[in-house]
Amino acid sequence: MKKVKVLIIRTAGTNCDIETAFAFKKAGAKTELQHIKKILTDPKMLSKYHVIALPGGFTYGDDIASGKILANEVKYKLKTTFQQFIKSGKLIIGICNGFQVLAKSGLLPNIDGSYSSQEVTLSLNDSAKFEDRWVYLKPVQKNNSCVWTTNMQDVIYLPVAHAEGKFIPKNETVLRTLESNDQIVFKYCNNHGNLDSSYPANPNGSIKNVAGICDKTGRIFGLMPHPERHMFFTQHPFWTRIKRRKGDGFLIFENGIKYAKRLL
User: Fold this and answer.
1) pLDDT at site 13
2) How many CA atoms lie within 13 A of 124 on its CB side?
3) Would the pLDDT of 53 be above 80?
4) Is 96 known to be catalytic?
5) Is 143 a residue whose pLDDT tops 90?
6) Is there a contact between 224 and 162 (Cβ–Cβ < 8 Å)?
């Protein structure tokens, strides 16, 4: 039986690629890890896959800014290839550093349709330090248009691990457009599901508590928290007190694979 093929792109400093591959495998996909240099040598290889994943880490040591160098490689050397991949109905997910790459390459949120204009960024946390903690997230889309987050429960719990996770839109127009287009997927909240902009509920000071966004198609998704680190209920800090048999992050990968199966 055919399986959805997921390409996980790695480079120097990537450190969540194995966990991300494991998460997709548990969701039923076939995964391959490829170094960005191999992709730059043969960009057409992307057409073999149904999903591209940009995992977390510190690509190129986060020199200049988090994810910026890999973002420039995508933007200036792979733009056409990524455009074709997206237009063919396929999926992309960027987690933590991967979200930074999608934002800084212009692939997210892609409001103007150019796939290259940077409209948002992820900047230094308000705490001015690396934040490694669990956070509550509230799905906020009215139309449930992000294919990765279909049927999510009211509040989920995922870990963050970043120093530059503060979501900042380019201007008020971009923010309003994201809201009107229903492109904001997750917001940081408290354990009751109420939006809370105070620290540490909002661990980085993100504008409007934004933790994850998608493009207009709902197929390109970026988030700062790590769903691959909560695949099993035993990874939950309070696992002895909960009744779930799956971690809150599992559904994100499962949704992506279910949607991508229509491409087989």
Assistant:
1) 98
2) 6
3) yes
4) yes
5) no
6) yes
Q: Of the residues 73, 119, 164, 226, which is catalytic? A: 226
Q: Which of 178, 156, 119 is nearest to 233 (CA)?
A: 156
- The active-site residue, picked from 16, 96, 146, 189, is 96
- Look up 226 and say whether it is catalytic: yes
The answer to whether residue 228 is catalytic is yes
Which band of pLDDT confidence, cut at 50, 70 and 90, is reported for residue 192?
very high
- Distance between CA atoms of 122 and 212, rounded to whole angstroms? 11
Average pLDDT over residues 71-81: 97
| C-alpha span between 213 and 209 (Å, rounded) | 11
**b/e code 128-161 from CB counts within 10 Å (16+ = b):** eeebeebbbbbbbbeeebbbbbbebeebbbbbbb
CA 14-202-16 angle, to 5 degrees, is 15
**pTM for this model (two decimals):** 0.97
From 214, 228, 236, 254, active-site residue? 228
d(C-alpha 99, C-alpha 159), whole Å: 15
- Domains belonging to the chain, first-starting first, are 5-263 (3.40.50.880)
Please state at what angle helix 250-260 crosses helix 17-26, rounded to 10 degrees: 60
Q: Is 14 within 8 Å of 55 (Cβ atoms)?
A: yes
Which amino acid, one-letter code, is at 108? Answer: L
Q: How far apart are the first and last CA of the chain?
A: 10
The CA distance from 239 to 39, in Å, is 40
Taking 90 as the threshold, does the pLDDT of residue 238 lie above it? no
